[in-house]
């Protein structure tokens, strides 16, 4: 649109734009770009939403399979972070969560590389879980307790191995079967199984 007639609206508009500072024109261009992005945003949002739904569905399928795997073996349960959390919650109802806490503390202890930290951690674990009348004393025999005490004098990453193994066996033979029969786990397996059958019916 162009006009060189006096009083032409287009001419006055062009003059008005020319009189604007460059920064104003740059801002106008920026606003135009942003408006263009916003106009396309619903479509982008729809795509992102679909992607996140697929990821959520995948996570649910994975977690369902994981829940059902816990009953295969105690090892499968301990390998799963959510399995350990569920088992810990169950042990709290039996007031025996110190066994799992001790086992987890030993697993963390084995990863310690510094000799200084190894010694201080070993003493802390022993005082909290192993020594007689410890605040969170685990159920191990006197002989294992004494072997562990002697191991502290030259603390290595293996100094709790025997006590940890005894505690693990106790959980596997005693608490783990009860966990599998518990109402909370039975409910979790029903939900996992229904999600699995729902998935099959959609395919």
TrEMBL record:
Bilayer topology annotation: Lipid-anchor
One Pfam entry name: RGS
Keywords: GTPase activation, Lipoprotein, Membrane, Palmitate, Phosphoprotein, Signal, Signal transduction inhibitor
Domain of life, per lineage: Eukaryota
Gene Ontology MF annotations: GTPase activator activity
Domain RGS residues, every copy: 73-189
PROSITE patterns, per database record: RGS
Entry GO terms, CC: membrane
Gene3D superfamilies in alphabetical order: 1.10.196.10, Regulator of G-protein Signalling 4, domain 2
A Gene Ontology BP annotation from the UniProt entry: negative regulation of signal transduction
Function (record text): Regulates G protein-coupled receptor signaling cascades. Inhibits signal transduction by increasing the GTPase activity of G protein alpha subunits, thereby driving them into their inactive GDP-bound form. Plays an important role in the phototransduction cascade by regulating the lifetime and effective concentration of activated transducin alpha. May regulate extra and intracellular mitogenic signals.
Identification of the protein by name: Regulator of G-protein signaling 16
Species name: Sylvia borin (Garden warbler)
Gene: Rgs16
């Amino acid at each position: 649109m162009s006009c060189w007639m006096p009083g032409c609206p287009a001419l006055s508009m062009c003059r008005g734009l020319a009189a604007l500072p460059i920064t104003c024109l740059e801002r106008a261009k920026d606003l135009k770009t942003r408006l263009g992005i916003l106009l396309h945003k619903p479509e982008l949002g729809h795509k992102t939403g679909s992607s996140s739904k697929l990821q959520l569905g995948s996570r649910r399928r994975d977690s369902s399979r994981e829940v059902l795997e816990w009953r295969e073996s105690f090892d499968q349960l301990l390998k799963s972070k959510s399995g350990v959390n569920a088992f810990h919650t169950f042990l709290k109802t039996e007031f025996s969560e110190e066994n799992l806490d001790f086992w987890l503390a030993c697993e963390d202890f084995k990863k310690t590389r510094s000799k200084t930290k190894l010694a201080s951690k070993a003493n802390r674990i022993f005082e909290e879980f192993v020594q007689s009348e410890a605040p969170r004393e685990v159920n191990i025999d006197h002989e294992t307790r004494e072997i562990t005490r002697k191991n502290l004098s030259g603390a290595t990453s293996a100094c709790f191995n025997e006590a940890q193994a005894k505690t693990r066996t106790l959980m596997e033979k005693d608490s783990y079967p009860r966990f599998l029969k518990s109402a909370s786990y039975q409910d979790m397996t029903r939900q996992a199984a229904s999600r699995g059958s729902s998935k099959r019916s959609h395919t």
